[in-house]
Amino acid sequence: MDSLINQDRFDIEKLHPAIVDYIRSIGSGQLFALTPNFYGTGVYYNKDLFDKFQVPYPTDAMTWEELMQLARRFSPSSTSSYGIRFNSANSSLFQLALKIGANNDLKYIDLEHKRMTLNTPSWKNIFQSVFDTYKEDAIYQNSDQDKLKPGMTYQERLLLNPFITNQVAMAIEGHYFMNDLRLAEELKPEEVPNWDVVSLPSNDDQLFSEDSIWIQYMLSINSQSANLSAAWEVVKYINSEEFTRVTLKSTLRDSLPLRRSAMTGDSHNLDAFYKPKMNPYQPQSNLRLSHRFNELLNAYADTEIEKAYEGSITLDEALSSIEQKGQELLLDKNMSNAQ
Fold it and tell me: What are the boundaries of the signal sequence (predicted)?
């Protein structure tokens, strides 16, 4: 598409540069597609709680350890609130540690060599940090209260959110959580806290962060198309400033536009979703782990890490045991699909 972009002087410089660069990396430097929107995740924080207990606000350039240290400044016993709530996908100690490790460019499986790489000092430090934060009662754990009950409306469920009810100082949520907060403000403006958002922690000051931003689809044009010009006009319009402003008016919008300049009239730190970068595309290994592998390893690891947290075994023993179990599963031909 580079020639078409240059020919029409399309203002590609106004699109999210990290996503444009990522798409270029897929095409080995050539831009073969565009996408008008993306999805992002950030750290929302309750400014009222931070102000009340004189805790410094989180920032866009934090590391995961710095975020955990901030979370440990809050606990139900000392501040009547938890430090942080993670989304349900990271509900176990093991899954939370894996997420943090991924954001520090750590891999727990070397697919190319079919080798587990979890039992290392770097991974141990991450698990220990998670343990410390849990032990200080700083992490909110989902309960029955967080489940949607029969007959409960979306609005009722929304107003029980622990971040909205001042039970947690920080929450890791997608960009769509901003819509939830705005709706809650309309329903009960006197109860919703003052809030803002920062980017997910990164392992360096370049803000490369796993899971911070991702794209769902891309629009490309077949190079052999008989209607190349017409197809380009469609792609160009869908990625234009005009179309972006039209879609921003939709109440069904569930994504962020690549055009940051279109996001006006909001005093919150929306740059939290536009600062992070995406790691360049890397071809996947020809080895694919089966769903059964992940299911068995996660169940085993959850149990072992829970034992280590409770003190019945050491963390070293847990990591060694998980690595051994994972290695057995990796070598089981029924647990992978070579392509």
Answer: none
